[in-house]
Amino acid sequence: MVKPIVLALGAIPVIIAILIAVPLLTKPDIPYSASTPNDKIEIEYTKHQLKKISYGVTERVASQKTEILVIKNDGEIRYSLTEAGYPNPDIKSKMDDEKHKKLKALIKETGFIAIPSESFPILENVTEYQKSNVKVTLNGKVNQIHWPEQNATAKFIPPIITMVKSQLDQIIEQIGK
After folding, report:
1. Distance CA 75, CA 43 (A)
2. 87-120 b/e with 16+ CB inside 10 Å = b?
3. Is 57:130 a contact under the CB 8 Å cutoff?
């Protein structure tokens, strides 16, 4: 038979673990406190739908579709789309302050600005893929990262990059509607 004192001592770490885990599970967002009003941020996000075109002995990579999203420090958004070499008119919009703070906090809190610019080589057998680029200027510090979609490279794309990409893709979807 187990003594009640042993049960009580064994329950203490479990209770502490629950007290720590519950706030983390119920609020997975990045805290807005990471973003201050003095932070100056500009983001330029580019997506290219690329295709390898073979001319017998030679081949080249051509862009079928290019999307460019520029977010200024004041929340001003400019979206450009080029399909089959023909540009569409730019769409201008304004990001609400709450969403702008969230994006700024995500980039600042995760250390996105400190990610090294590494090379992601494309696999030989891939003929069509998406390649993305994010250029972030945060308080005068600039970081630019280029990467293909995960199934086009053997290297692992860090989750921080895919998290920022998904946030920027959501903004593009909302503008396109």
Report:
1. 10
2. eeeeeeeebeeeebbbbbbbbbebebeebeeeeb
3. no
Report whether 103 contacts 71 (CB < 8 A).
yes
Distance CA 163, CA 106 (A): 9
Percent of the chain with pLDDT over 70: 83
DSSP-derived 3-state class of residue 127: coil
Other C-beta atoms lying within 10 Å of the C-beta of residue 62: 13
Tokens of 87: 């540009």
What token pair was written down for 132? 């993305």
- Say which CATH topology domain 33-176 has: Mago nashi protein (3.30.1560)
b/e burial code for range 14-43 (CB count within 10 A of at least 16 → b): eeeeeeeeeeeeeeeebeeebbeeeeebeb
pTM: 0.75
What digits encode the pLDDT tens for the residues 49-93? 988 888 778 888 888 899 999 999 998 999 999 998 888 999 999
Domain positions in the chain are 33-176
Rounded distance, CA 83 to CA 66, Å? Answer: 7
Do the beta carbons of residue 79 and residue 69 sit within 8 Å? yes
